[in-house]
Design brief:
Protein name: TetR family transcriptional regulator
Mean pLDDT: 91
Pfam families: TetR_C_14, TetR_N
CATH topology of the largest domain: Tetracycline Repressor, domain 2
Structural class: mainly alpha
CATH architecture of the largest domain: Orthogonal Bundle
InterPro entries: Homeodomain-like_sf (IPR009057), HTH-type_TetR-like_transc_reg (IPR050109), HTH_TetR (IPR001647), MftR_C (IPR041347)
Distance between the termini: 44 Å
Number of strands: 0
Keywords: DNA-binding, Membrane, Transcription, Transcription regulation, Transmembrane, Transmembrane helix
Organism: Paenibacillus ehimensis
Oligomer: single chain
Length: 191
């Protein structure tokens, strides 16, 4: 990552950190973009260059490139689900304690504020498409193949269940939960 990209990522993270603090102190609905911008020492117009909406300050992150790189690094002899599982778990394992705390706080807010939950569906749909593209390339199919989309949808469903559980159980191990949930999916979802 070049200097410009690192600076942009650092600013984005700082804005998100201040936003989370303000949401915690004032509540999501009572916090304005102007307050977030002031706390982050940027202008509201700069805020909107990074985040088109207030919801996006919680929904946007820099994890997609990390997930793509982790998936593409998986050995070709793994099944698509094994590769996704290892990619997710390795990407989470590389997160610092502060990053994981931020993920937990974001998940808690997203799951507790109805408009954020609704906005998260669009984000999750985009992630589902990303997974479909990665898996399609790996198995030699098209991303819009029904089986590939179903696979990606199942992985996103697991992600949603883990997000909900993690938001409700803040002491849980996120990587462990995700690994266990994807393991159950791999085993055919035995109950």
């Amino acid at each position: 990552m070049g200097l410009r990209e690192r600076k942009k990522a650092k600013t984005m993270a700082a804005v998100q950190m201040h936003a989370l603090r303000l949401f915690r102190e004032l509540g999501y609905n009572a916090t304005t973009v102007e307050q977030i911008a002031e706390a982050a020492e940027i202008s509201p117009s700069t805020f909107f260059r990074y985040f088109p909406t207030k919801e996006d300050v919680l929904l946007r992150d820099n994890y997609d490139p990390v997930l793509v790189a982790a998936f593409e690094a998986q050995p070709s002899d793994l099944s698509p689900l094994q590769a996704v599982r290892r990619a997710f778990v390795s990407a989470i394992a590389d997160m610092s304690a502060d990053e994981l705390a931020m993920v937990r706080e974001r998940d808690q807010l997203i799951m507790s504020v109805p408009e954020l939950r609704a906005a998260a569906l669009n984000n999750l749909t985009q992630t589902m498409q990303l997974i479909a593209e990665l898996v399609a390339k790996r198995v030699g199919r098209k991303p819009d193949d029904a089986a590939v989309r179903t696979f990606a949808g199942a992985v996103i469903g697991v992600n949603i269940s883990v997000m909900l559980y993690y938001a409700e159980h803040p002491d849980a191990d996120f990587a462990g939960l995700l690994d266990e949930a994807l393991s159950k999916l791999e085993a055919g979802l035995p109950l």
